[in-house]
Amino acid sequence: MTAIPQGRNRSRLALAGGMCALAMAGTVLTGCSSEEDPNAGTNGVGKLPPEKIQAKTLAAAGSVDAVRLAGSVVASGRTYELDMRLTSDGGTGSVTAQGATFRLLRVGEQLFLRADPEFWNNESGGDGEDSDAAAAAEKLGGKYVKVPQQDPSYKRFSTFTDKDVLLDSLLALHGTLATDGHHEQSGVRTIRITGDQGAGGTLDVSLEGKPYPLRLVRGGDAGTLRFSEWGEDFALDKPAKNETVDYGQQLPTS
Question: Which of 134, 205, 206, 246 has CA atoms 20 to 30 A from the CA of 150?
Fold first, then answer.
């Protein structure tokens, strides 16, 4: 057997070691590159300017018929706690204001409100001593009351059940838009955009699947809302007749 010169053997070993080191370095660098890119494996909106991110999330929100929103909204000096499921044809859920909670249900143009007697007594301005007001409140308590479209309360309450009206008014950020880094909401990666460095609101947009809005902090401490169940359909049925009170043209509270 012919012996391989010792010098040549050392050269081959050095070359092999160098190739292995180069291959390992390439693997490490590739791995680091993927881990350091927060947009790797996402829907790509995190790479866009904030104006385009906002346009895409508004388009995504408008492309589906159902959503759930929960959180707080401050309007006209009142704080409303909402937990609503909305579709293009109505909505259902609960609203809490000034310590009183009531349920809303809208199917098409028909709006129903259900609350306890205390809520109706407060709405009518009663103090619990007016026997007529107390009797009316007791009758309404626990029932779905059909709200007449001519009644002033109809517009006020139906707004909480209108997907397009709510999203158009809530999702708008005010002022100069900017991105504010990558975040996470309920285990979903997001890109955050802000208006006027947060003074005009902040919005977290999903980086997974469609770029739906997931969390909104309204400017001026006007509330925080979370959005979920995008595109998940649900049943929306009118209450049974024996659960409903119809006062005709006007509620007794107006």
Answer: 134
Q: Closest Cα to residue 86, out of 197, 237, 218, 230?
A: 230
Give me the count of residues in the chain: 254
User: DSSP H helical segments within 111-245, as ranges?
Assistant: 117-123, 131-140, 152-158, 163-170
pTM tops 0.70, yes or no:
yes
* Digitized pLDDT (tens) for each residue of the chain, 254 residues in all: 445 455 554 545 454 444 444 444 444 444 444 468 889 999 999 999 999 999 999 999 999 999 999 999 998 888 999 999 999 999 999 999 888 899 999 999 999 999 887 777 766 555 555 555 566 667 776 789 999 998 888 998 999 999 999 999 899 899 999 999 999 999 999 999 999 999 999 999 999 999 999 999 999 999 999 999 999 999 999 999 888 888 665 555 54
Can you tell me whether residue 234 is helix, strand or coil?
A: coil
**Candidates 3.30.470.10, 2.50.20.20, 3.30.499.10, 3.30.360.10; CATH matching 45-246:** 2.50.20.20
